[in-house]
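[Solved] Which block belongs to which protein?

Original post:
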Amino acid sequence: MKILITGFDPFDKEKINPAYEAVKLLPGNISGAEIIKLEIPTVFCKGAFKMEKAIEEHNPDCVICVGQAGGRSCISVEKVAINYIDARIPDNDGNQPVNTSIVSDGDTAYFSTLPVRAIVENIREKGIPANLSFTAGTFVCNEVMYRLLHLIHIKYHHIRGGFIHVPYTAAQAVGKPDGTASMDEKTIAKGLEYAIEAIVQDKEHGSGNLGTTH
């Protein structure tokens, strides 16, 4: 089994992005699955384009995209991506589209094809806070998740895919309002490792599809 896992570069004046910092800490093999790591830009269209090129190159069985959700207190496994952009800030190229669709003729929304509940349960069982989320936002994270699932829907039917949001690191929380949630990079990385473990186990057990029943 081959898993492509992506993480964004820093954005919104942050010096790091815990998404890719945690991805970099992952081992090259998890539960027998080969792990391919990829940093993508926090830029509309460009991030998804780089991800698609990696899919073409590596032909993975699974794609997991990881992004930062500053303010959330735990690892959030996303259930759904919507065909909508409403950027509250510019992306790293200065683009700030609002009130627009991602794919003009695309479906209104797509569900993750990962075993999302099994992922949450496995992360929690290992002692790391995790929740199922029903909003990936309306910024680049949601756009990348939507484009991934759209690609799976129209072209890469054999691939499973989805998105995981992670909190700020402790270093990022410095200087932010009192009570801002954070999690250290090693813990985030372990959470991602347990997510992959759950995906591999789910495939081995043959429970199939993929987000609608999990």
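(Second protein starts here: sequence line, then its structure tokens.)
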Amino acid sequence: MQGNPRAVEEVVHNTTERGAIHMAESITVMTTGGTIATPRDYRQRRLSAKDLAEALNSSDQRITDAHVAWKDFASRPSNAITCDDVLSLLDRMEKEIAEGAKAVVITHGTDFMEETAYLLSLFWEYDQPVILTGAMRSAGSISADGPRNLEAALRTAESPRAQGRGPLLVFHDKIYATGEISKVHSWDTDAFAAELGPLGTINQWNELHFQRETIKRKTLPRPTSLTEPVALITASMDTSEAMVDALVSGGYRGLVIQGGGRGSLPPRMMEAAKYAADNGVHIVIASRCAFGGTSPGSLSPGIIRAGNLNGVKARLLLLVAISLHGYDRDKIRETFDAH
């Protein structure tokens, strides 16, 4: 996917499974790489979309009655996925929908899945389901979780109850809104969580149960590129102003600082943040806590609070807001207030 991802060779493998209740006319599965496509011997080549299709369809168990098109978008770990790659992925997803797909399933590495998931939640404006999934255990390993996660993703994609909910993450038999999830464990197969919990679950009989509705947020216009210099740093005990000063001197136009608790910073670091904000740098304060967010109100006229967004999501939203609004601080604050 380096350069133009459209140049990546597409491998299309169409299957129609027998006997399932027909709920969707067609589903496109697009692969980006990650552990779900990594053999047990990582020195071997990563699995293609065709490989994933053959592995999933090798069992006698019925997966879906939908017509499934398996396509390669990329083959790389998630730490090598860029923001602009996600914009290109969105273009490809829109093309699939325009050509008749009723849902799109994306396989993705888990380490940086949270970022791709959040960007999808900001930009996907269609009712057709988009399902993100992956794996914590490599393909071919004992108790590999990829096949089950992919099966559950396909089941969700073909369900009419997934329509209009925005992009979803299906993982470990749980269904999450992509704008809400965080990776909370580095190796457990139940690796993701959301403060409000999952939207629903999938049981052993592949029945979907939704417990709550998706919190709807207005989608944003899609920038042509997301390459503005925006940094994310974390405050800790006795952190000085040096890191803030160094990043500002290095040309960063935006800075997200994860503070303690509801967003507190050590005094010298806070003074540096206020000075940077007064001199035209966009400063956003988030909480380094997993859940709860920052306290309401203004720290300083030039500093924005991230609300319930953690630092990773706040950085992406600031990156998008700067790309759309430049240095219009009121517009950027409005963007954060709305998300």
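Accepted answer:
You had them paired correctly. Confirming on the second one: The chain has eight helices and 15 strands.
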